[in-house]
Fold this protein.
Amino acid sequence: MGNITRYFLNGAAGAGGEQPWLAYNQGGYEMDSVAVSADYVYQTGWTSGSTFSVVQFDHDGNVNWQRDVNLGATNERTFAQVDSSQNCIVVCASDAFITSISPSGSINWSRQLGRSFSSSGVDSFKWDAANNRGYLNYAGTGSFEMVYFTGSPPTVQFARYLGTSGACGGIDYDTSGNSYSVATWNGSPDRAVVRKHDTSGNLSWAKTFEASGVSGDVRPYSCAWSDNGTLFIGVQHNNDKPILMWNNASNGNMTYRYRYDIPSAYTYPLLRMDNDENRLYCAWPAADKKVYFTKHTNSGSLQWQNVLSGTTNLASNENGFAQYGDFIYFSAKAINYGNSVLLKVPKDGSGQGTYGSFTYATDSSTYGSNTSGNIALNGTTWSASSATRSWSNQGASSASASGTITLYEKS
């Protein structure tokens, strides 16, 4: 288990007097996921072999407990969410074990998807605590799919095919339970595909997006649904600037897009929507030992821009960024392994200073040339089209209309 040091940050306190803080976990390995409830902050990550670690903090950053969990799986990455009872629901990437851990640290139940997996495994996981249902995207052998399940322990309701050659990205849901999945289709160049399903598994729409006139693969990494009917998509553009897209959630059509010209081109955006304030938060881990944080209005206007700097590059996953109450949370592992960081900062961007080997500060650099702030409009032609392949509403893969997926109990 890791040796965790908590630093209080500067800046205004949130509701109830909560202070921003940064926790540095030495020996915490790949702690790259965070989930937040009313009383607890959970950080999870792969430790070694078939073991993953869970740390529970209170909202002041004090460690309540740490525990390692060994399910006999090769985890590599974890994805954490919380349910209505403040249990931490953890999905292990490579073997898709879904495990519920109680606020006291005991295991409530554990299940595994009855599917064979490729090396990439699960890429995104969301849990709708209010309605006790979950959504995940994963890459299985020969295809990649999304799964919808309900209950605790969960029962799979359906799985739907997303593609054959490519990779999964983020998943999110709306208040009606409709799911939004993003994925990459391999090609020359790669294309982004977005699909919407209802809670019966029916396909509402499917769209592909690609750039012309610019080299480099387009890979959607994260998505966030807004209750104003917008679906935000964060796109990694290999050898070019990352892209933030606005799409109409009712039909999938792209409204507009921005390119964020941060110093390191090969960057994947992580998105979280605060529907109480209709504001979008983005985390942009880069290859210059920095993570860039931005806050946007629904129309894309930049409200603030901060940067977390360290002594090594930081990497996270689609569940490594969270928003709860007056704060946003970011969990990341160090690329050189062995250490990780958990950052809690107010939604107004305050809470700045130097803490150990990390500095969190306002970034006043201009990463674009347009007059609307630090976000540069993309001058490249983008096209949105209906999916060109035959989409099946049945089965878990393109080859089978009767494929079933079950969850097996893991003791």
